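User: Good morning. I'm curious how 2'-monophosphoadenosine-5'-diphosphate would be positioned relative to this chain. Could you predict the structure with it bound?
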Amino acid sequence: MNKYLVIGNPIAHSLSPLLHNYWFKKYKFLDSIYEKKKVEKKDLKKIVEQIKNDEIKGVNVTVPFKREIFDLIDTAPHEVQFTKSVNTLVKENDKVVGYNTDQEGFEISLEENEWDFKNKKVFIIGAGGVTPSILSSFIRADGAEKIYLSNRTRSKAEELKKFWDKAIDFYQMNKDTIEIIDWGEKSELCDLIINTTSVGLTRDEKLDFDFSDYNNNKEALFYDLIYNPKETNFLKEARIRENKTMNGKMMFLWQAHLAFKKWTGVSPKIDQEVIKLLD
Ligand code: ATR
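Assistant: Good morning! Here's the predicted structure, ligand included:
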């Protein structure tokens, strides 16, 4: 049996097993099984060893271990060495390699909606494990005009800014591109407001921001990386304000597609059937 895992804490909400097992069946990998496992930090080393000795074939890593796992793997591609955020593990040439399919998944999810990354004003909420993957999508030649960043623990946002200001410099973007906003404070109106925090995973949780300036703004897009529940309070309030909304489902599907391809060589189809499967 080829065993695959998604590890995290909490992990109960993950729909990865449903999705990957669906694809294993569809593409006739009948000796493969994908399970979820709640782990503690101390368990991570053993999981990496189990990949090395072929007890586990592939692993997805989710909150809060995307950064921690980076220190335990053998190697990672250049862009991952930059973000230090890993969501997919696979053994290649006897080495445990850490990939990140979140960033590409995020970019595809927006590009599918004809989103153009150029010259946009973006408000990123959070500075956790997934945030570097989101941030780096906007830092490039022809990247964002302005990136506001806010995190409950301000020092973590400052650390991110300090690090990514080097990339801002490299791409010759305006040196003030990234600006930190105090938690709960307003930024100027943005084109895209993204929740990268875990606030909303539990139904009654709510972010402490006042977005009433966006009332009736039909152009602004509120994007929550959370896909389960389907509509967090962040998105519900945006819908009521008549803003555009998007949850993390398509990003989730695309990051899973890219991981599945790394493990099996097969590019699984993202069609209406698989989109519905997650409803
Ligand atoms: P990670 O280890 O990847 O950072 P995490 O602990 O779930 O995962 O944190 C993800 C993000 O959610 C962080 O930005 C975190 O803010 P802090 O850095 O201040 O911890 C944010 N977050 C989690 N719970 C929160 C809450 N109740 N209110 C505000 N932000 C929260």
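The longest strand covers residues 2-8. The chain is about 35% helix and 20% strand.
Let me know if you'd like a different ligand tried.
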